[in-house]
Amino acid sequence: MRVPSLRLWLPGKLRLRQPWARESASRRSLRVNIGVAFSLLIFVLGSGLITFSHERHRRIALVTASELFERSTAQLAADISSLYGPAETLVNLTATLANELPILVTDRDLLLVHFAAALDDHPNVEAVFVGEGDGSFFLLRSIKDSPDSSGLDTVVPAGTRYQVESVERGQGEGAQYEHVFLGKDLEWLGANEAFITGYDPRSRDWYRLASRSSELLHTDFHTFFTTRETGTTIARRIGETKSVVGVDITLEILSAALGKLSTSATGEIIVFTEDGRLLGSDKPDRMGGTGKLRPSGSSPRIADFDEPILDELFHRFVEGDRDASLMLNAAGQSWFASIRPVRFGSNRESAFMAIAVPEKEMLSALERVRLQSAAFALVALALSVLFAWYLSTSISKSTAQLAAETREMSRLRFHSPITVRSRIAEIDALARSMAVLKAALQRFTRVAVSLSAEEGSDGVARVLLAEAKAASRAQVARLFLVSDDEKWLVAFEPDDAIEEADVDVRAGGSASIGRARIALESTDWQGVSVPPEVFALNAGRTVIDGVDVEPRGAESSVQADARLLLVPLKADDERAIGVLQLSVSPAGGASLQVDEENVRFLELLAASAAVAIRNRQLIEAQQATFESLIRLLAAAIDAKSPYTGRHCERVPVLTERLASAASASEAPAFRNFHLDEHRARELHVASWLHDCGKVTTPEHLVDKATKLETVYNRIHEIRTRFEVLWRDAEIDYLRAVDGLPGGERESLSAELERRRIELRADFSFIASCNIGSEGMDEESVERIRAIGRQAWMRHFDNTLGISQAELKRMRNHGSASLPATEQLLCDRPEHRIEWHAQPDPAERERHGFTAPVPENEYDHGELHNLTIRYGTLTAEERHKINDHVNQTILMLDSVSFPKNLKRVPAIAGSHHEKLDGSGYPRGLGAQELGIEERIMTIADIFEALTAPDRPYKRAKTLGESLLIMRDMGEQGLIDAELLELFVESGIPQEYARENLAAVQIDIPISVRPAVNPIGERINDER
């Protein structure tokens, strides 16, 4: 369970990290808030009014635009009506007149006069004509502005008012064409002799359609044959004849009318057909400048002009908006627009009028009003901000001072009292409350710092008692903590001298004062009621003179003459871990200070102490658990072998003693080495775990006392083979002497005895070599090989009764037939066992392991083992033994040690390193080995040399061990100065008295060996 704690930082000044520290960066002062509030209010109101006014005016402008467009459409309709109405009347009148007076058609002169009068009376009519059933045609055209308005590629005489186009076709005769230019009085001015057009009215739509009906005909907009202008024709049949009278009306007058309607330089007014042909525009250049067709001879189309607004208008028209007011977006701006149908003539609705004006242009006046309103609002806003700033400054001055005091309190700065006062009652009350709070926080923070500074539960208890005693004016302050078995409240006193006494406990009194412990029984104790300390603990509430302080804030909870105050040590909702007892003697009239404020302070103080004590108890429990696990692992390693027992226990003793001596030494070599609590803890853990990797080392290697020993000693197999040779010699003798005379028998008997002596000598030699106590020279190696070459006969299958692993290794090496000849000693392929899991090169490189890895994991070859030069371990077995250091480093590196124990893997894994770099597993040198690693190395070597329980070597005496270590120091293998300190401090002698047999203590305590009479090499450091 995680216990909350007060986190303190002390970087020169005490600072408490506040939970609201990050949030304060986004806060603003009261002055700014008031000013911003007023400013935002004015801004929102002003903006709202301006926006409302703008939208209101905008809607009015839209309505006005719609009405304007309607008027423009009506005006255009009126213009068209003024154009088409008289023309229709002219056609009807002429058709009726010609029907009544046929001569009017046949007499060209009379017809000319009539047509001239009609053109003069109808200036919007381009031409008036008559077409007959035989193909004859007579047309009078009005020449208005300039000579080139005739539309012909010919020279028009000056003063021309009319031009006549005549086609006469008689029966059986060819067409006669005549093109004459007349003045205003119909005088002849000239003729176009080359006027031959091939024109036949009967091929034109106006004639064909009108000749079939007696009704007035309006043609679609089309191109006139002669002038190539765009316009429409109004025609009607004359009675029941084949003659048709008609007039041509061009669209030039339509564009002129649209130009008069235009009120915007950037706006658009067009008239168009359903298929997108442009009939008129307020911009004459779109119609060829004079309303004439472009050189292609076709009517322009809307799509030809690449105008986004025209394209958008026609798109909306195609989508169905054929009689509507619109809002469009085109060319990067908004437009007011309208599309309305336009009637050309009495029964014609095939054209539409579109008007579009940019919204910006339409609302330009409104925009000026809006800008003026915004300027006024900004001025009002500026004045409002100044007023709000003044008002907020006067209000927030006191709150700013209180905020500054709060910041000082958040930094735990309590050097000055709060003196802020205000005319505003709420702010003044806040200032007084903060003054009280500051004093309480100052007192509590000082206590919290003191509690946090203590590293043990005893120190926390002393601080708690001292502060509580001073705050309550108590004469006696005691602390009761729940025992580990939760059966007692055990008292703690500052002098740590607690006398246990069985004193009767009386309810509400102070009889429990002075008791060393109080039973935590749920029933009555010794026939009386439950002690108030137990009640306060179980209920988790403060008790004053036996009275429960509940409900909070009640007047009855404060007594002027209280003599016993019990405060539970309780954090949050957890169960109390103890009780704080404060009391005064009844004599003398003294009483406790138990006002509401002081009681709450004592409760908060007790809660803080509870957190601190529980944290320290948890830390101590975790450390105890960790320590027990370390010792458990060390005990398990020692228990693996009965011959290395207590090695993991004895090395820490030597290590800690030598480290203490080095820390206390004033020698220059150790001047910078100080063994503080954390460093001592780190070295302690490392020394206990220095051989933890041995849990992976096979026991038979740790215990291997002879060369041929694996899980058992194979010397017995060798001896059996010698027995076989012995019997073979006897059998050979008995076979040889059978039937021989006595003299020869004696010779063979002597040979048999010589063979027996030889076998005994060979086995004795092999057995002595198996011990491995002495170094082996080359002559001995050769003798072993010679002895091993002796042969014996095997009569049984050596692949029977063995494991699958052995069978796999012998698969290709078993005897094919029996009996088989075998050597006395040999290295067989099945003796070599490959690696089950090859060491990972990447992992070895990462940890800096430099020792070479043998080819096989094990080699049980008999000759290979018997010819070991020193000791009893092969290269494979020595690597396996030495690998325990690698495993120690790997295991400890995988442990998440705290910061103060980070060097445990390095210290524990370096006890086989040498100062000259010849050690293992990483080959570290003097520059890379700290003093802790050197201390560990000396302790490990000394314990290994003097250990009396190693089966693979004889235990060295104290003198022999120190001489060997002195030689190692002189050779630069271990730290000579540390070794000298080790000897001079008396650690070897003290250790010898505690752990060595009497026969091993061969030198007096005060004598240091001067020479090395042994010259022995250390071969095993297991």
Automatic annotation (TrEMBL):
<protein>
    <submittedName>
        <fullName>3'3'-cGAMP-specific phosphodiesterase 1</fullName>
        <ecNumber>3.1.4.-</ecNumber>
    </submittedName>
</protein>
<dbReference type="InterPro" id="IPR003607">
    <property type="entry name" value="HD/PDEase_dom"/>
</dbReference>
<dbReference type="GO" id="GO:0007165">
    <property type="term" value="P:signal transduction"/>
</dbReference>
<feature type="domain" description="HAMP">
    <location>
        <begin position="393"/>
        <end position="446"/>
    </location>
</feature>
<keyword id="KW-1133">Transmembrane helix</keyword>
<keyword id="KW-0812">Transmembrane</keyword>
<dbReference type="InterPro" id="IPR003660">
    <property type="entry name" value="HAMP_dom"/>
</dbReference>
<dbReference type="InterPro" id="IPR029016">
    <property type="entry name" value="GAF-like_dom_sf"/>
</dbReference>
<dbReference type="InterPro" id="IPR003018">
    <property type="entry name" value="GAF"/>
</dbReference>
<dbReference type="InterPro" id="IPR037522">
    <property type="entry name" value="HD_GYP_dom"/>
</dbReference>
<feature type="domain" description="HD-GYP">
    <location>
        <begin position="793"/>
        <end position="998"/>
    </location>
</feature>
<feature type="transmembrane region" description="Helical">
    <location>
        <begin position="32"/>
        <end position="52"/>
    </location>
</feature>
<keyword id="KW-0378">Hydrolase</keyword>
<dbReference type="Pfam" id="PF13487">
    <property type="entry name" value="HD_5"/>
</dbReference>
<dbReference type="GO" id="GO:0016020">
    <property type="term" value="C:membrane"/>
</dbReference>
<keyword id="KW-0472">Membrane</keyword>
<dbReference type="GO" id="GO:0008081">
    <property type="term" value="F:phosphoric diester hydrolase activity"/>
</dbReference>
